[in-house]
């Protein structure tokens, strides 16, 4: 059993205000055994996982920490055209990134800060610029006139701009007032969690959750 199961098992019970004694009785086990499950001391069987998922009204995948969505919704990818189906994997990756960016700009719209939106836009633009320029210049036969910035400096300049944009964004989000523009009030920051994101962005949230999961899996391998 993974480390997420004990944590989520305990969280669900406490969220619903159910005592450990009551939950154990409802689930047909002793309180001592439930305590061991919640502390990760003992592992349970599949039948207990299914019973517990039904008891708390969540999916088994959520209970095991496999998805941040309580009902275990699958990744939704919008309909594709014929050309997309020839390259299914790149298309899914593209949709994951595109849908996730929709949510980022949706949150920026709520915060309603031109300065913050500008900084995040610069950061994302630089990332795309770097990726495209790397692909473009990989073939020496491609004409160099498309870019004005010296190739030897380009990546360092855009990486530096990305770091600066993130620093300015953090400053704005912490409530500091920039040289130009207004500071962001704390009460302007939306409260976010997997449930609210799923409700507000039902078509895009699964992509964002997949992006987070994929990125953090990459972190573990490096």
UniProtKB/TrEMBL annotation:
<dbReference type="InterPro" id="IPR010982">
    <property type="entry name" value="Lambda_DNA-bd_dom_sf"/>
</dbReference>
<keyword id="KW-0238">DNA-binding</keyword>
<dbReference type="Pfam" id="PF01381">
    <property type="entry name" value="HTH_3"/>
</dbReference>
<dbReference type="InterPro" id="IPR001387">
    <property type="entry name" value="Cro/C1-type_HTH"/>
</dbReference>
<feature type="domain" description="HTH cro/C1-type">
    <location>
        <begin position="9"/>
        <end position="63"/>
    </location>
</feature>
<protein>
    <submittedName>
        <fullName>Helix-turn-helix transcriptional regulator</fullName>
    </submittedName>
</protein>
């Amino acid at each position: 059993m993974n480390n997420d199961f004990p944590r989520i098992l305990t969280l669900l019970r406490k969220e619903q205000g159910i005592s450990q004694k009551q939950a154990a009785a409802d689930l047909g086990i002793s309180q001592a055994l439930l305590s061991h499950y919640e502390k990760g001391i003992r592992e349970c069987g599949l039948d207990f996982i299914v019973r517990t998922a039904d008891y708390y009204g969540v999916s088994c995948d959520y209970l095991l920490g496999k998805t941040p969505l309580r009902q275990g919704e699958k990744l939704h990818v919008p309909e594709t055209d014929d050309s997309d189906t020839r390259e299914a994997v790149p298309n899914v990756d593209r949709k994951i990134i595109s849908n996730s960016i929709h949510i980022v700009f949706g949150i920026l719209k709520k915060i309603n800060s031109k300065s913050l939106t500008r900084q995040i836009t610069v950061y994302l633009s630089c990332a795309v610029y770097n990726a495209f320029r790397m692909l473009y210049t990989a073939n020496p036969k491609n004409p160099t006139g498309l870019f004005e910035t010296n190739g030897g400096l380009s990546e360092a300049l855009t990486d530096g701009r990305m770091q600066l944009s993130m620093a300015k964004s953090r400053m704005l989000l912490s409530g500091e007032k920039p040289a130009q523009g207004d500071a962001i009030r704390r009460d302007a920051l939306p409260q976010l969690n997997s449930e609210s994101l799923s409700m507000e962005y039902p078509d895009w949230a699964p992509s964002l959750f997949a992006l987070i999961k994929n990125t953090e899996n990459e972190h573990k391998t490096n």
